[in-house]
């Protein structure tokens, strides 16, 4: 790196509203905190993401839509979170949107059982930070 080139992290500090995560990241809308040590050094960290509470409606047929445009998917043998991300969002890295919309701690739980019905949120995720009755991850 040239002597006059700033590291990426420092360059972000000069751009108002800049965020260290890309727009497609689950952490893009997460708040960035700053911890100041006794010596004055600053350490930036990502605060917890807050997700809206999960609805628990009766199981719907795969083709039925929920009120907020979320759909249902019946898990088949061979399904994986990344494959569902590609199928529903066009990007395998977006599996986290499906995980956020379902009561799982481990994303593998989404597809560990053929026949399980899982919720598929609309593109854009399950909502921004905050929101009433949010749950923490």
Ordered list of secondary-structure elements with their pairings:
Blueprint: H1 8-13, E1 32-36, E2 42-46, E3 50-51, E4 71-74, H2 81-89, H3 95-100, E5 117-120, E6 135-136
Antiparallel strand pairs: 1-2, 3-6, 4-5
Note poorly predicted spans.
57-66, 126-137
Within the largest sheet, what's the order of strands?
1-2
Distance between the termini: 37 Å
Q: What's the number of extended β-strand segments?
A: 6
Summarize model confidence as the mean pLDDT: 74
Biased composition (Low complexity): 51-63
Biased composition (Gly residues): 125-137
Region (Disordered): 1-80, 114-137
Biased composition (Basic and acidic residues): 33-45
What does the model show?
This protein has 137 residues and is α+β, with helices and mostly antiparallel strands. Helices cover 15% and strands 16% of the residues. The chain contains 3 helices and 6 strands; from the N terminus they run H-E-E-E-E-H-H-E-E. It has a two-stranded antiparallel ribbon. It has a two-stranded antiparallel ribbon with strand order 3-6. The C terminus is likely disordered. This is LysM domain-containing protein. It comes from Streptomyces tauricus.
Kindly summarize this structure in a few lines.
By secondary structure, the chain is of the alpha+beta class. The protein is built from three helices and six strands, in the order αββββααββ. This is LysM domain-containing protein.
Features:
137 residues, alpha+beta, 6 strands, 16% strand, disordered C terminus, LysM domain-containing protein
């Amino acid at each position: 790196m040239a002597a006059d080139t700033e590291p990426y992290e420092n360059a972000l500090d000069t751009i108002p509203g800049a965020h260290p995560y890309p727009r497609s990241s689950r952490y893009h809308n997460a708040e960035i905190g700053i911890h100041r040590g006794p010596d004055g050094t600053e350490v930036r960290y990502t605060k917890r993401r807050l997700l809206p509470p999960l609805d628990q409606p009766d199981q719907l047929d795969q083709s039925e839509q929920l009120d907020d445009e979320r759909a249902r998917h019946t898990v088949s043998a061979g399904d994986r979170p990344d494959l569902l991300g590609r199928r529903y969002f066009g990007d395998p890295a977006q599996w986290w949107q499906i995980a956020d919309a379902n009561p799982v701690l481990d994303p593998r739980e989404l597809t560990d059982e053929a026949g399980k019905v899982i919720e598929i949120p609309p593109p854009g995720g399950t909502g921004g930070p905050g929101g009433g009755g949010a749950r923490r991850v």
